[in-house]
């Protein structure tokens, strides 16, 4: 298990702020890819945002979520504030449960993430249906399921820069 | 004396800003304000345009790998298929050339006849070709983005057609591209008439790519396969553009109305080259029948 949890003895290096923002930017680029009406694709920004809120609640929180949400609203051309509201609520849940979630192994972590991601999508759905929009069909929720399955690989990839040892020292145990 | 600072909490060791719940309430209410202002008041178009300066380069960057894969696929496309397509286009070109030659003569004849009948001059519509770049990722609406924008002189409200019929209407213009709301969108209304009988109605999107004719009485003369064309009553769309074909007429609908489903004639959900026409000036209300004047409520 690479995941640092209660059962892991691995000590991680501190996260670099630029890496957090770079990962959010890459997630945004993945979201903005013009792939047509494929709604089953996961919301990468929500996933990466949720990850950093769980992992670094002091660094990434509701403020960053709001900014990312507004950018997403402009990029998607959706109702202004729709993504912002969903991401802010998602970030609140993720930062609140951060200590609890980190205690679990990767599989159970993703079980915690699933209701948060589905909840964020439900918020957007409610906002838009209140505005008399068209129901996109059940495949809309498939994105959250796929994102949940991606939680373990994503957390491995995003923690990779922190796994690297500072400098090798034969006499030091860690 | 319990403590020298009784009644005061000690200063925090770590400054973390306002408590999470306070921050949540602040930001959530800010988002809700944005939602209400955008949905009800439409004041945020300027903010959107300003922020699109940031997102447009990102979108272009994100589109590059997709376009690369697509053009690589086209590069390896079948030579025979391309040749067949080329031959077909050449044939169409010749056919259109004969029509074009006749059109000039017809135009002159039309002007003369109109002058004889003392009718209003029909305004010439100019149009420009645009390419649909991608479909908007918003799952709750049906819109596409085209590669012409403010800098190319595109105005909001312009009708968008393809080679066979109406596709939609420009609803939002950015500096370099524009957003077209398709006629299959639930919020898009289009004043139309039945080509066979001349019955006027309003066409709405009905979800899953179909269209619906609303507000027609149950005894309306309408059959499956009837062609629906624009009526031009809004003054924005030119009259007579093909829109849809009637798919089903359900006369047992509730409330005395008939439920008419139509399929669009144009390739509304297929994305290709489109024609953006200049929007006509809306007709003054006294020159049309008030009952038939259809609202254009697609400015969302």
Short structural description:
The complex is a heterodimer of chains A (174) and B (300). By secondary structure, chain A is mainly alpha-helical.
**Which regions of chain A are unreliable across 5 or more consecutive residues at pLDDT < 50?**
none
Characterize the overall form of chain A.
elongated
Biggest sheet of chain A: strands, sense, closure? none
Counting helices, strands and paired strands, the structural category of chain B is alpha+beta
Can you tell me the number of structural domains of chain A? 1
The proportion of strand residues of chain B reads 15-25%
Distance between the termini of chain A: 17 Å
> Class of the largest domain in chain B, according to the CATH hierarchy?
Mainly Beta
Structural class of chain A: mainly alpha
- Mean pLDDT reading of chain B: 81
Name the CATH superfamily classification of the largest domain in chain B. Answer: Rod shape-determining protein MreC, domain 1
Provide the CATH architecture of the largest domain in chain B: Beta Barrel
**What radius of gyration of chain B results from the CA coordinates?**
26 Å
H/E topology pattern of chain A: HHHHHHHH
- Which range best describes the helical content of chain A: under 10%, 10-25%, 25-40%, 40-55%, 55-70% or over 70%? 55-70%
Biggest β-sheet strands, sense, barrel of chain B: 6 strands, antiparallel, barrel
- Kindly report the CATH topology of the largest domain in chain B: Thrombin, subunit H
Count of DSSP H/I helices of chain B: 3
Order of helices and strands of chain B: HHHEEEEEEEEEEEE
Total beta strands of chain B: 12
Q: Which pair has the most extensive contact?
A: A-B, 46 and 50 residues
